[in-house]
Amino acid sequence: MSGRSGAVTGLDLFDLRGKIAIITGGGTHLGKSMAEALGRCGARTFIVGRRSHILDQAASELAPVTPAGCEAMVMDVTDAAQVRDVTDRIAASAGPIDIAVCNAGSNGESSYPPDSDLDAIRATLESHTLGTVTTANAAARQMIGRGGSIITVSSVHGSLAADPRLYEGMEMKQRSSLAYQAAKAAVIGITRNLAAELGRSGIRVNCISPGHIPKDAANPEFIDRVIDRNALGIRGRPDDMQGAVVLLASDAGRFITGHNLIVDGGWSIW
């Protein structure tokens, strides 16, 4: 991806002007925040997902702070043909993709061992794993011979089990599940495989594993427990993902591939 022939210092390392970026699940929460960071650094961004009204709203909010523009496109990451079509249309209208953030993935599981629902597990695994692979493959086809950066999104629960005690005594519609943890562990493995396979084509592939970054609608008691149990004693925010994604997308990360960057406030050091 890098075109530099000598030492570059300061903010030039993070300059993404002239780059084309696609961010799946880019309409909300972590995806939207990462799209904002890439756009602020100069990339022309395309946020994609399944819900057009959410994407359109996000794009209108991001456009004023993304000098090269932010556009919304509807895409189901589990449909390989649809992914290929959307990425081809991006290349035709803006140029080949330089940065792909594989962030989309849903978790509809609300059953837990020993009563896990196999259909829910299957759907969660498909969303995270197939969605990552289809997007990465489509982007890589455009990057071969040019270089590029593929960034996957796992979770601290891709490496660690969720502690059931964290949820004790609280009404939670959903909590970290067997399927979610299996899917996020798979994303880390997928990342390493892609890095090994695509490295000689000039493509870097890395993973970001966020810790607990609660949405505003989360149970306040749950948020307090999360803050209390991470090493920094602070609440994780969506913009905590921004530095990580820009590092891995830019020339600042030129010699980084196959890495799993944990952004969790020290949750996993205990």
What does this structure look like?
The relative contact order is 0.15. The chain contains seven helices and seven strands. The protein starts with 19 loop residues before the first strand and ends in a 7-residue tail after the last strand. With 270 residues, the protein is of the alpha/beta class. β4 (99-102), α4 (118-143) and β5 form a beta-alpha-beta unit. It has one domain: NAD(P)-binding Rossmann-like Domain (Rossmann fold, 3-Layer(aba) Sandwich), CATH 3.40.50.
How confident overall, as mean pLDDT?
92
Q: Can you tell me the CATH class? A: Alpha Beta
CATH-level-4 superfamily name: NAD(P)-binding Rossmann-like Domain
Shape: globular
Discrete helix count: 7
Examine the secondary-structure arrangement and name the CATH architecture.
3-Layer(aba) Sandwich
The total number of structural domains is: 1
Order of helices and strands: EHEHEHEHEHEHHE
**Largest sheet composition:** 7 strands, parallel
Look at the helices and sheets and give the structural class: alpha/beta
Number of DSSP strand runs: 7
What is the CA-based Rg, rounded? Answer: 18 Å
Question: Order of strands side by side in the largest beta sheet?
Answer: 3-2-1-4-5-6-7
Q: Roughly what fraction of the amino acids lie in strands?
A: 5-15%
